[in-house]
Design brief:
This protein is mainly alpha-helical. The protein folds into 2 domains: 139 residues, Orthogonal Bundle (Ribonuclease iii, N-terminal Endonuclease Domain, Chain A); 72 residues, 2-Layer Sandwich (Double Stranded RNA Binding Domain). It has a 3-stranded antiparallel β-sheet with strand order 1-2-3. Strand 1 and strand 2 form a beta hairpin. Helix 3 packs across helix 8 and helix 10 packs across helix 11. The termini are far apart.
Length: 225
C-alpha cells in the first residue's frame, strides 16, 4: 500500500506503518482488522475534542459542552473528514463490500478514521494524536455553534419548504445492509417541487433521514449563494 499522500494529509509519518494499514482494514478483508483500533480511537477522539472545547469555550456549561462534542464526534462529522482525506481510496475491503460500495459507506469510513486516530496514538502517543485530530478539526471547531440546541435537519428543511409554500419532502427507505446488530440504513429525501433528491445513511432509519435532510439543506443553501 502506498500511503504517503494520506500520511502527509494527516501530518504524521508512521514509524510503524503496519498500524496505519490495520486501521484501513475492514473485517471483511481479513485479520488483523480495525475494529479494536476503532474502539480505542473513539476514546482518543473524545478526549481530544473534549480538551479542545474546554479550552476554547471557557464559559460554556457542561451540558452545552456535551452537546457540542456530540455534534463533532458523530458519524456524519467523521464521514465528512474521511471524505476530505479521500479515505475510501485507501480502504482494504473484502470482495462483497467492494461490490456493494463499502468504500463510500459512511459507517465504514467513520470507523476507519477513528481507527487511524488510535493508530497514531499507539505509534507516537497522545500528544501527537491530539495534534492530528485538532488540525483535522480546525475548520469545524471554528464553526461550532454554542448558542443552544439547534433544530434538527428534518425540522429545518420542513420549515424552509413551508416558508416557500412548497410540499414537504418524501423520505423513502432505499436499502438496509448488514447484520441485525450492525445494520446501516440508506434513505432518499425527495423534494419533488424543486426536483431535488439527496441520500443519507445511518445506523437507524431516523439517522439516515436526518442526513439526507441535511444534504438537501446544504444544496439549497449553496444555490442561494
Amino acid at each position: 500500500m502506498n500511503l504517503e499522500a494520506l500520511q502527509r494529509s494527516l501530518g504524521h509519518r508512521f514509524t510503524r506503518p503496519e498500524l496505519l494499514e490495520q486501521a484501513l482494514t475492514h473485517r471483511s478483508f481479513g485479520s488483523p482488522h480495525n475494529e479494536r483500533l476503532e474502539f480505542l480511537g473513539d476514546s482518543v477522539l473524545g478526549a481530544a475534542i473534549s480538551n479542545a472545547l474546554y479550552a476554547r469555550f471557557d464559559q460554556l456549561k457542561e451540558g452545552d459542552l456535551s452537546r457540542c462534542k456530540a455534534n463533532l464526534v458523530c458519524q456524519d462529522a467523521l464521514h465528512k473528514l474521511a471524505d476530505q482525506l479521500q479515505l475510501g481510496e485507501h480502504l482494504r475491503l473484502g470482495e462483497g463490500e467492494l461490490r456493494s460500495g463499502g468504500h463510500r459507506r459512511p459507517s465504514i469510513l467513520a470507523d476507519a478514521l477513528e481507527a487511524i486516530f488510535a493508530a497514531v496514538f499507539l505509534d507516537a502517543g497522545y500528544e501527537t494524536a491530539n495534534e492530528v485530530i485538532v488540525n483535522l478539526y480546525a475548520d469545524t471547531l471554528r464553526q461550532v455553534n454554542t448558542q443552544g440546541p439547534q433544530k434538527d435537519p428534518k425540522t429545518s428543511l420542513q420549515e424552509l419548504l413551508q416558508a416557500k409554500r412548497l410540499a414537504l419532502p418524501k423520505y423513502t427507505l432505499l436499502n438496509t445492509k448488514g447484520e441485525a446488530h450492525q445494520q446501516e440504513f440508506e434513505v432518499e429525501c425527495d423534494i419533488s417541487a424543486l426536483n431535488l433528491k439527496t441520500r443519507g445513511a445511518g445506523v437507524s432509519r431516523r439517522a439516515a433521514e436526518q442526513q439526507s435532510a441535511q444534504r438537501a439543506l446544504e444544496q439549497l443553501t449553496t444555490k442561494k449563494q
